[in-house]
Amino acid sequence: MKIFKFGGASVKDAASVKNVTQILQSEGTESTVVVISAMGKITNAFEEVIDAYYNKTDKLSENLGIIEDFHKNLMNDLFDKDDEIYKEIDILLGELSWFLARNTSQRYNYVYDQIICFGELLSTKIVSAYLTKIGVENNWFDVRNYIKTDSNYRDAKVDWDLTQELISKKLDASKLNITQGFIAANDTENTTTLGREGSDYTAGIFAYCLDAENVTIWKDVPGVLNADPRVFEDTTLLEQISYEEAIEMAFYGASVIHPKTLQPLERKDIPLLVRSFVNPKETGTRVSKGKMLEPFIPCFIVKKDQILVSISALDFSFMVENNISYIFQKLHDYQLKVNLIQNSAISFSVCIDNKFNKFDEFYNELKTQFKIDVQKGVDLFTVRHFDDKAVASIEAKGTPLLTQVNKETIQIVLVTK
Ligand SMILES: Nc1ncnc2c1ncn2[C@@H]1O[C@H](COP(=O)(O)OP(=O)(O)O)[C@@H](O)[C@H]1O
Ligand SMILES: N[C@@H](CC(=O)OP(=O)(O)O)C(=O)O
To answer: Which residues bind ATP (predicted)?
Structure first.
């Protein structure tokens, strides 16, 4: 029993869908659960729909049209005009229109999940129908009937007991199963999601509940590299990474593996393979028990567009437990993700991600009680297993504002040139 995960980049056009089906045919089409994300950048396109709908702008029908045209154009290269799939896609788009017309809820996160899920529903319907068309029997299922969560929309927490029970009881794991990543449902059958880029986590959940042999995440890169190839020119493929090391890398922001994915796999000792859908014969990266890192070289992680905030008390008193815990509570309340902390006697600095755009509210609340210096638009570079050469290469990229070192890791906040 194995789990495959194909992300948006692997199903971004008709040729990519054909490539996915070829990989499935050569890797075996039995005892597999295939988890698929929305096609290309369609989740972002759905976010535009949500924005237009929620803020009642005049862009709603245009944004919906972009999504419909994208899928129909792609389908025209895969199917014949009278194939059943066109009706199925129209039914899904009809369900979406029905929701948009009938919904009365003002809860943004709830509305977001009820709309965003259509990206994964559309992509899996299309891949499943194409497999059927070329003669590969498969079982499409709605993941919302299997993965159950709480009602924390947009970042839902999995109900592991119920999910385990449903997957064990209802899923025929001997088949080639096709399902959606990222989406789930709560106990009232409303759609929830596991957080952006959460399809890897879906693969981890199925692997855990089915005691899978392994999970393969198919990517447009040869595997996990020692740096993001979009930012660094010379990168090296990491052949083996221990779970602990991969969790550290994901924690510091290595976006190639979703951080939550590794925990369920580690608990059951299920290897995670990261392989290239461009060169599927290559072995890629293996994350498993064993060597920490092979080859053992510095690994670079970048988080762009961070905010560096230095906070001190107005009366120059020490920054200690009581005010630090207060600041942390506020960071939590405003959903600001802290990526680095440093404190001295009178100042407390944090490097944060303003993912939910709530920094200004946080700032306005704190500025009455603290002196706050803010530097927006900085980059946070983390180097695991650093050496002098690696540090120098980062420092050459701009002006370092803050550096923090521990045994295996150095973090440098920079204003880049
Ligand atoms: N350390 C890394 N190793 C490999 N790829 C990385 C790394 N860091 C960032 N990436 C980027 O991650 C991309 C693949 O992830 P992503 O776009 O999220 O894939 P998908 O959405 O298809 O799952 C690669 O194209 C690469 O640019
Ligand atoms: N489609 C969702 C879930 C996901 O994981 O996508 P991808 O596998 O393309 O990163 C998103 O974009 O957030």
So the answer is: 5-8, 230
Mutate to test the pocket of ligand 2, among 36, 183, 197, 260 (most ligand atoms within 8 A of CB): 197
Kindly state if the Cβ of 39 falls inside 6 Å of ligand 2: no
With a CB cutoff of 8 Å and minimum separation 6, the contacts of 94 are none
CA angle 205, 211, 215 (to 5 degrees): 60
What ipTM was estimated for this complex?
Answer: 0.97
Residue 104: exposure state from Cβ atoms within 10 A (0-12, 13-18, ≥19): exposed
Cβ(277) – ligand 2 distance below 6 Å: no
Tell me the domains of the chain and their CATH numbers: 2-212 (3.40.1160.10), 299-416 (3.30.2130.10)
Pocket test for ligand 1, best of 180, 202, 219, 273 (most atoms within 8 A of CB): 219
Instruction: Report residue 388 as tokens.
Output: 């002098």
**Nearest ligand by distance to the CA of 119:** 2
Distance 417 CA to ligand 1 centre (A): 24
**Where does 155-271 show beta strands of DSSP type E?**
176-180, 183-185, 191-193, 214-219, 240-241
Alpha carbon distances (Å) from 365 to 167, 357, 360, 413: 46, 15, 9, 25
Q: How many CA atoms lie within 13 A of 239 on its CB side?
A: 7
What percent of the chain shows pLDDT beyond 90?
A: 89
DSSP state of 144: G
Gap from CA of 303 to ligand 1 centroid (Å): 13
Per residue in 34-49, pLDDT (tens digit) is 999 999 999 999 999 9
- The residue with greater pLDDT, 323 or 410, is 410
**CA 156 / ligand 2 centre spacing (Å):** 15
What is the Cβ-side half-sphere exposure of residue 297, based on CA atoms within 13 angstroms?
Answer: 16
Residue 251 C-alpha from the chain's centroid: 13
To test the pocket of ligand 2, the residue of 20, 127, 199 to mutate (highest count of ligand atoms within 8 Å of its CB) is 199
| Other beta carbons within 10 Å of 406 | 7
E strands, 71-161, in order: 139-140
Mean pLDDT of 59-66: 97
Q: How many CA atoms lie within 13 A of 356 on its CB side?
A: 17
78 in contact with ligand 1, CB cutoff 6 A: no
